[in-house]
């Protein structure tokens, strides 16, 4: 047979896998499954079939490959052109004695010829076979000798029904009379030319030995695979010739940390480090194994998760009988633990060597025969030997601390050799130093035993402690000195400090601690702190001390000490011998914190009162709300509000809360020379500032009322003036059981409360003045006003003031007229009077002009306005000033007169009488101005009116009026529109009501 036929015989099973799909491509895995072999074996056979031209192949994807059956050629068979006799002769000569069974069939599929091998394989008689229909022969004879007659008959007869294709398959012949059991490979194809064209030739190859070999090989492979899989201490896997994984055992999964599914098909370089891959180690190892048969290597390898392990690796090349490289077997042993142990052993050995060499301690190793086996250089220095001098145990004289010589058995080495026990820090004296003094040593020994526990060696450590001995002596001298200095330091510690031993007994108490604890140090030293201070068993401070001692962690906390009656901050610093305790009296700080909390509470009260007084409609309601709120506060006992009677210079009660009749019982005066006028109330009346007494029982000024303080249970008091625009509306009295109450912050908050109440009362009085039908009209005259204000100024012309408008923040606008010859006088007033800020001539007419005057805190106008009054009219002519003032009946006329005379001493009150207002419409408009309009809206309307904004043509634009009011133009127009809407609504409603009547 030629080489192609040999390949067909050797790899018939692989080629047969394509019979069912002769044109469809198959993968190596599909072929391996079909013929029951490993993928690698299938791959090698497929490649060989490609080389022989029986299969074709190509690469698919990143790492895949497929194979398919080569197309059959259509060349004429070698029998073409031969005569029938010649053809039979050729066939007989070629196949007659060959090991290949042959059936030659004509176009009717009758047997034309069979050879001896066919007779032998199937147990046939050629004389009875030739000329028979092959179909009948299969059914009646051949079917009886094949193992699966049905499948055999179906497959062969199918080629007769469709004689257009070649067929290949394997079949098993059963043993029988004159025949052996064997495996045959059937190959048949149609005859396309010649005498038997349309017929078919069938060849049967004996593959019994091949099948046996394959079966044995499969069994061996199965056994080997089972063995490999059972071994988990080694990673054992196969690589294809390209270095890709084709098998993967459990050991590989464990060592590499990679599953079989993830590993198969991956290149072996995946499991090398990046450095090895960069050095081409994987490829070089495979090349070496292929060249030399195997390669061994140790180095780092990489698991799937990226971790490294130290591995011993053997790679062996696998070749077939022809020497063709089939792949590689790789065995890996994880030596990480062994390498780590070796590394640790090396490290420990190096460490011991280095310690031995660099140790400042003399180290010596003796055998059980007293022989020195090893020593470092420091040992010879300690022993006082030269580096070339030998030493034996006992060569150096040693004496004990008492100066008596030590026998060998009394020395550390002798004791260990005798008893087998270690000796620790035995102090001895050795050879004398150059100064004649003996040297001191501290010697320790440790026995080394063999595996049976027998003494094998003794390690001796010797330290010279001569300097330490001297230092210890010096330290003892310094200790007393340091103790003395420490006592002085403790004496300078500002905090209270005491020390306790581990049983909580006093060992030291400084003066400050003794002062706070209430016991001298002498009586405390040695006593238990809990007993000495009478601390309850459940006092939390006990747990604090015990925790600090147990954990050896410092503690810091604040507490109120019941035994001491103070707030204290305590810091505990533990040591093994006891506790150091620092504590400081922080009662003052705690009181300050409590005062701050009280102040915050007071601010809340003040805000609540502020909100409440706004909603009240009478002065009495305002005063009652204020007193009730103060009396209900936790920090105060009671409160009252009183007026000042200017006729009697006495204080008259108005409202009380939290107390009954106190203000009637207490004697108060406004006379500063009277002791009853020198208390907080009298001082507040004169100063218009909050006045306090923080300790009623020690303040000399409060002496007249001390009995009352005891009776009513208060220690401090405050008098808060109710003031607005420098007008005193009354006094608020507040009383507290706290000593040292009403500190600066609290007094400031109460002062703000007085201002709020004063503002509210003033607003009510202004409202009452505008809305009431009866007011007090006062006529004042100030002679020589111009001369007194601006000396030397001509008093020609006339100035008339018709309207005064409060703008806010003490600013007022006045509108009036001035004759031409008095304009210079008006301008001179602006220059001379500090509260006249600016004047604007608004419209010039024949003979006179209108003007706008801006004032800031004018004393007369402010005093009148703050009491709910107004300047109705003022006129300056011939140098004199005449002024008409309207005031509510509740206002003290004398106070207004006093203010005018204080400012202008020549002021005279000319007339005083009541004026009745009867215009209901005007009353309603006044009510609307007061009740419906805000302060800003009212100021905008009045300023616009008097500035001529509503005249036509306008004397002032909106922007000019806005500038006078120090507001933006859009803000002016917004306030004006809202005010107009409210006023017009009131007028229309009033007119409608009048018509209805």
Automatic annotation (TrEMBL):
Domain PAC: 295-347, 421-477
Domain spans labelled PAS: 87-132, 220-293, 482-552
Domain of life: Archaea
Keywords, sorted A to Z: Coiled coil, Transcription, Transcription regulation
InterPro entries: BAT_GAF/HTH-assoc, Biofilm_reg_signaling, GAF, GAF-like_dom_sf, HTH_bacterioopsin, PAC, PAS, PAS-assoc_C
Coiled coil (residue ranges): 458-492
Name the record gives this protein: PAS domain S-box protein
Organism: Haloarcula nitratireducens
């Amino acid at each position: 047979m030629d080489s192609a036929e040999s390949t067909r015989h050797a790899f018939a099973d692989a080629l047969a896998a394509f019979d069912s799909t002769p044109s469809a491509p198959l993968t190596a895995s599909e072929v391996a499954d079909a013929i029951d072999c490993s993928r690698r074996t299938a791959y090698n056979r497929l490649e060989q079939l490609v080389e022989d031209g029986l299969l074709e192949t190509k690469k698919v994807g990143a790492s895949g490959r497929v194979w398919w059956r080569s197309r059959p050629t259509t060349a004429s068979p070698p029998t073409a052109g031969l005569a029938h006799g010649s053809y039979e002769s050729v066939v007989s000569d070629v196949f007659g004695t060959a090991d290949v069974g042959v059936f030659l069939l004509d176009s009717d599929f009758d047997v034309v010829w069979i050879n001896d091998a066919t007779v032998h394989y199937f147990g046939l008689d050629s004389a009875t076979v030739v000329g028979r229909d092959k179909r009948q022969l299969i059914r009646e004879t051949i079917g009886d000798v094949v193992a699966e007659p049905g499948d055999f008959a179906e497959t062969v007869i199918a080629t007769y029904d469709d004689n257009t294709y070649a067929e290949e398959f394997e079949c098993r012949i059963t043993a029988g009379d004159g025949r052996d059991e064997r495996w045959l490979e059937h190959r048949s194809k149609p005859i396309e030319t010649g005498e038997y064209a349309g017929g078919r030739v069938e060849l049967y190859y004996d593959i019994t030995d091949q099948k046996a070999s394959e079966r044995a090989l499969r069994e061996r492979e199965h056994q080997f695979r089972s063995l490999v899989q059972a071994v988990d201490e080694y990673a054992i896997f196969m690589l294809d010739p390209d270095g890709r994984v084709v098998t993967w055992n459990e050991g590989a999964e464990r060592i590499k940390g990679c599953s079989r599914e993830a590993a198969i098909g991956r290149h072996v370089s995946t499991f090398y480090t990046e450095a090895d891959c960069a050095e081409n180690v994987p490829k070089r190892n495979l090349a070496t194994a292929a060249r030399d048969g195997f390669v061994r290597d140790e180095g780092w390898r990489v698991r799937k998760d990226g971790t490294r392990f130290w591995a011993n690796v053997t790679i062996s090349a696998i070749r077939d009988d022809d020497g063709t490289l089939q792949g590689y077997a790789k065995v890996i042993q994880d030596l990480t633990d062994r390498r780590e142990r070796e590394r640790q052993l090396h490290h420990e050995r190096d460490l011991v060597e280095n310690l031995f060499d660099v140790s400042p301690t003399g180290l010596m190793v003796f055998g059980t025969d007293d022989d020195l086996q090893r020593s470092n250089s420091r040992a010879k220095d300690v022993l006082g030997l030269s580096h070339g001098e030998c030493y034996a145990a006992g060569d150096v004289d040693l004496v004990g601390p008492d100066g008596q010589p030590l026998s060998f058995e009394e020395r550390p080495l002798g004791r260990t050799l005798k008893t087998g026990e270690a000796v620790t820090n035995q102090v001895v004296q050795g050879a004398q130093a150059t100064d004649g003094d003996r040297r001191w040593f501290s010697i320790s020994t440790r026995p080394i035993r063999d595996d049976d526990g027998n003494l094998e060696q003794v390690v001796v450590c010797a330290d010279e402690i001569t300097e330490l001995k001297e230092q210890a002596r010096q330290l003892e001298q310094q200790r007393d000195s340091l103790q003395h200095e420490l006592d002085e330091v403790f004496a300078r510690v500002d905090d209270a400090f005491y020390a306790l031993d581990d049983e909580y007994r006093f060992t030291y108490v400084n003066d400050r601690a003794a002062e706070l604890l209430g016991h001298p140090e002498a009586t405390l030293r040695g006593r238990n702190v809990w007993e000495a201070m009478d601390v309850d068993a459940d006092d939390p401070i006990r747990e604090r001390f015990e925790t600090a001692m147990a954990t050896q962690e410092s503690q810091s906390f604040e507490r109120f000490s019941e035994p001491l009656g103070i707030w204290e901050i305590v810091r505990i610093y533990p040591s093994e011998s006891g506790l150091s305790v620092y504590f400081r009296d922080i009662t003052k700080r705690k009181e300050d914190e409590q005062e701050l909390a009280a102040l915050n509470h007071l601010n809340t009260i003040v805000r609540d009162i502020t909100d409440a007084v706004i909603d009240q409609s009478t002065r009495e309601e305002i005063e009652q709300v204020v007193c009730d709120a103060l009396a209900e506060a936790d920090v105060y006992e009671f409160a009252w509000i009183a007026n000042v009677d200017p006729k009697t210079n006495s204080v008259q009660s108005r409202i009380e809360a939290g107390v009954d009749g106190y203000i009637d019982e207490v004697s108060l005066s406004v006379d500063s020379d009277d002791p009853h006028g020198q208390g907080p109330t009298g001082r507040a009346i004169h100063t218009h500032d909050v006045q306090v007494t923080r300790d009623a029982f020690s303040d000399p000024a409060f002496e007249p009322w001390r009995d009352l303080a005891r009776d009513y249970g208060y220690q401090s008091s405050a008098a808060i003036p109710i003031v607005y625009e420098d007008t005193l509306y009354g006094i608020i009295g507040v009383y507290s059981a706290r000593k040292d109450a009403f500190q600066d912050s609290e007094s400031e908050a109460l002062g703000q409360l007085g201002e709020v109440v004063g503002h509210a009362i003033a607003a009510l009085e202004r409202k009452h003045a505008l809305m009431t039908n009866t007011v007090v009209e006062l006529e004042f005259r100030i002679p020589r006003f111009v001369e007194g204000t601006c000396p030397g100024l001509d008093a020609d012309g006339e100035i008339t003031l018709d309207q005064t408008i409060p703008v806010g923040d003490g600013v007022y606008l006045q509108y009036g007229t001035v004759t031409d010859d008095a304009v210079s006088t008006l301008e001179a007033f602006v220059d001379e009077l500090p509260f006249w800020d600016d004047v604007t001539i608004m419209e010039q007419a024949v003979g006179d002009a209108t003007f706008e005057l801006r004032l800031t805190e004018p004393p007369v106008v402010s005093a009148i306005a703050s009491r709910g009054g107004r300047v109705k009219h003022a006129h300056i002519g011939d140098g004199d000033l005449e002024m008409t003032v309207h005031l509510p009946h509740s206002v003290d006329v004398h106070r207004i007169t006093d203010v005018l005379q204080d400012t202008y001493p020549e002021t005279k009150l000319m007339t005083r009488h009541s004026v009745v207002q009867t215009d209901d419409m005007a009353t309603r408009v006044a009510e609307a101005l007061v009740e419906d309009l805000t302060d800003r809206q009212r100021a905008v309307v009045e300023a616009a009116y008097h500035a001529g904004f509503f005249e036509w043509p306008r004397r002032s634009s909106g922007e000019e009026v806005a500038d006078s009011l120090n507001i933006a133009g859009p803000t002016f127009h917004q306030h004006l529109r809202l005010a107009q809407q409210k006023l017009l609504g009131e007028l229309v409603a009033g007119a409608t009501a009048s018509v209805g009547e």
